[in-house]
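queue> holo job accepted (flavin-adenine dinucleotide)
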Amino acid sequence: MGTDIRHAVVMGAGMAGLAAARVLADSCEAVTVIERDRLPDASGPRAGVPQGHHVHGLLALGAEVFEGYFPGLRAELERAGAPVWDWGEGLCAVLPHGTPPPTPMGMPIQTFSRPLLEHALRRRVTALERVTLRDGLTVTGLRTAGPGKVVGVRVKDGDGEDEIAADLVVDASGRSSHLPQWLAALGLPSPRTTTVDAQVGYASRTYSYPEGQAPPSWMGLLQPLRAPDFPKGCYAIQIENNALHVTLHGAGDTQLPCGDEDFLAYAKTLRGPIAETIASLTPTSAVRRYARTVNRKIAYHRLARWPDGLIALGDSVCTFNPAYGQGMTVAALEARLLEQMLRSRRTRTPLDGRDFQKRLARITVSPWLMATIPDHAWGHPRSAWPIKAGNWFMNRLIDTAPHDPRVYTTFSGLFHMTAGPLALADPRLLSSVLVRPRPGESLRTTTA
Ligand SMILES: Cc1cc2nc3c(=O)[nH]c(=O)nc-3n(C[C@H](O)[C@H](O)[C@H](O)COP(=O)(O)OP(=O)(O)OC[C@H]3O[C@@H](n4cnc5c(N)ncnc54)[C@H](O)[C@@H]3O)c2cc1C
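queue> job finished
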């Protein structure tokens, strides 16, 4: 493995940026992570990551990849109070047509707040000898040697503007990335952007348990949305500090709560135990709302020209409706791709950024379909038939889950990305999902 990349600059110290910095530190002489926020010493929410106020579930696959890069992470988070539990046993899944009984799955899940996870990763990344984190510094543009080569970034802080040279620049600046505009300024064509928007809104807060009151019997509560009949749902997880983190969500034109009283009132409109649970708890945060949940992918991989010395990953390339919990896991998988490509290069061969974007696009295919197939059903009445058929099948799978532990386990594997679509090619599973009618169910598609 060569260290011909003398200096890599990573824009953004979110999940994708930290994961990328971790793998770059094995292949580069120096890695600088540039973050526009001033970063807190302790775990806590921050302005650049407003989503940190909302429930962040880390899928089983993402947890596995992060543990590989940061050995002992799970134990460290556990010491910080983040519980570990089996998904099938600890989840209360309030599905449209039933709640599966507890079903041991051997799928360990750990639940925590996003700031706790981010803080643990940041501490470990900044402890790496080759990594420097510069916070309170905003990247304002690319430094180039002609349109075909990126050789660093321009940055700004309270003292003024500066430039930082780099052999490789990594855009991990998230949903608010300015990369499309920066590429246009280099005279490169605009990449195609695809969006699917279910207009999902989030409203979240944390609770503590009053003295002497036991936490709920479940570790996580999941009540998914489904078009058109189930526009309201929720997530709740037990996290560090003996807290319960609750996100209420709604699709389309659903009005999300913004204060104490309407939070509980909204919860009371949901089936399942959420209202009853939170009614007796003590709120420990204000209600926070968030509405930028569009699925959006930017087809950098299709650009005919792509500058040397540049790659992009994480939300800056592809964001998912967070209701499917995929973003952090996809960021981890993209960092793993970066590691694989860095390792497999011949010494002194530069990283092929265009090839990286092509391979990254392949990683996003499955999670993109998982999120957008059901999301099309909100307000896309003229969806193509494969999307409608896919949605019909997924709904059927979900409706079978409460009655069939094998189907519930397979669905959970797909959700957690530990199983691929091939898991569905099991004749017994297909017969259970397709042939056996469920009591009281409708066989029509649920597209709007
Ligand atoms: C409401 C909500 C809930 C979510 N829930 C989940 C979930 O349950 N599970 C899950 O896996 N994912 C979830 N996600 C997605 C997850 O937050 C992201 O996919 C994940 O954090 C990867 O993002 P990232 O690192 O690309 O961007 P971010 O984590 O957003 O980080 C981007 C970083 O770049 C910095 N930055 C931006 N511009 C600049 C600049 N010009 N210069 C320097 N720094 C800059 C920002 O300050 C920020 O620190 C959720 C997202 C939202 C919005």
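queue> The chain has three domains: 5-56+114-193+294-370, 199-290, 380-434.
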